[in-house]
Amino acid sequence: MQEILDAARSLFDDARSLRRELHQHPELGFREERTARRVVQELEALGLEVAAGVGKTGVVATLEGAQPGPLVLLRFDMDALPIQEETGASYASQVPGVMHACGHDGHVAIGLSAAKLLSARQAELAGSVRFVFQPAEEGLGGAQAMLADGALGPPKPDQVLAVHLWNEKPLGWLGISPGPVMAAGDIFHIQVTGKGGHGALPHLARDPVVAAAAIVTALQSVVTRNLSPLAAAVISVTSLHGGEAFNVIPSSVEMKGTIRTFEAEARRTVLERFNRIVSDVASAHACTATIELTPLTPAMVNDAGVAQRMQSLARRLFPDFDLETNYRSMVSEDMAFFLEQAPGCFIFVGSANPERGLDASHHHPKFDFDEQALIYGLALLVGATLDALHPSR
Ligand SMILES: [Zn+2]
Ligand SMILES: [Zn+2]
């Protein structure tokens, strides 16, 4: 164990400078061209077989071990966000309005460091490793694009693993849990239509503003009155637009938002009640509602066996760490599409350091993480891969 940790530590300077370089050149989803070029360059230098342009801007590389055996897939996301960086860091984004505010720059650095460490141990591997560098994780469909281009095989991986640097928790914390760990996400778009009119003559109109307000309030009962208090779900109306003038009742109102659930049963209940409440409340106000529901990602479900092996590895690697074994987040992540098709585990690696001011939350303009976390994520993925591909297993 100590050996893996030492090897991960020995790559820290390289991983950090690579992360900082990527941080200065962030690219939005499906536009990760410079990033993909850097990834290809690093992987080819290791003598790996590399395929670029998988799922538009994704990159896949394979490391064949000296002996046959299982296939482990390691996935890393590469995209940045449309945010103007405000960290003031020396390595801050050089691209106006674009920023690595989720830590995916760190994930790429971990991925390339893992490729280096595992390539150096090629002779000891019984099996192979597929490195997947994925574009467009932030709600743009990168995982589906890579799966459509065959990132999951054949041959199909026996295990898929990924880490996320996690600023919601401090350095020295790890979240490794079996079962659902991140929520299924659905996006909704509602148009409430009534009849516009004079603001002073509401009895001649059918006011969609009042109907929309009633819908927002009524939706609050879906989670509290229809699901078990022990089940988790969220409905958030995040956008509400209608009308321009103070004296005109508009003819329609647009609403947008998101629904998050873990269990399929809870999702069915919430969607059913959601549709019913929106339509019926609109109709009670003599308006009509058209509802568009778009699934974003399924729930992310870790395999119980793989999660248990990861927990045991984490305890051996980091005996002093705070290991949480039933951690869940209502955020959604498209690694869920990989985990729907192959057993695996998504690991949260605490990366905040409040003493150094590195504790802004993900997607915040001041987001930055403690780079020590790169070592931890790297050691966990390399350790798990070596465990799975050890000839004596
Ligand atoms: Zn994100
Ligand atoms: Zn992310």
Q: What keywords describe this structure?
A:
393 residues; alpha/beta; Aminopeptidase; Alpha-Beta Plaits; 8-stranded mixed sheet; 35% helix; 28% strand; elongated; binds zinc ion
Nutshell version of this structure?
The protein has 393 residues and is an alpha/beta fold. It contains ten helices and 16 strands.
Model description:
With 393 residues, this protein is an alpha/beta fold. It folds into two domains: 2-180 and 299-388, 3-Layer(aba) Sandwich (Aminopeptidase), CATH 3.40.630; 184-297, Alpha-Beta Plaits (2-Layer Sandwich). The chain contains ten helices and 16 strands. Strands 1-2-4-3-5-16-6-15 form an eight-stranded mixed beta sheet, sandwiched between helices. Strands 10-12-8-13 form a four-stranded antiparallel beta sheet, with helices on one face. α2 packs antiparallel against α4, α4 (104-120) crosses α10 and α6 packs antiparallel against α7. The longest helix has 21 residues, at 264-284. The model has no long low-confidence stretch (mean pLDDT 97).
Tally of contiguous helical segments: 10
Low-confidence parts, pLDDT < 50 over ≥5 residues? none
Report the biggest beta sheet as strand number plus sense, adding barrel if it closes: 8 strands, mixed
The ligands bound in this entry are: zinc ion
Q: The CATH topology of the largest domain, please?
A: Aminopeptidase
What percentage of residues falls in helices of 4 or more residues? 25-40%
Average pLDDT figure: 97
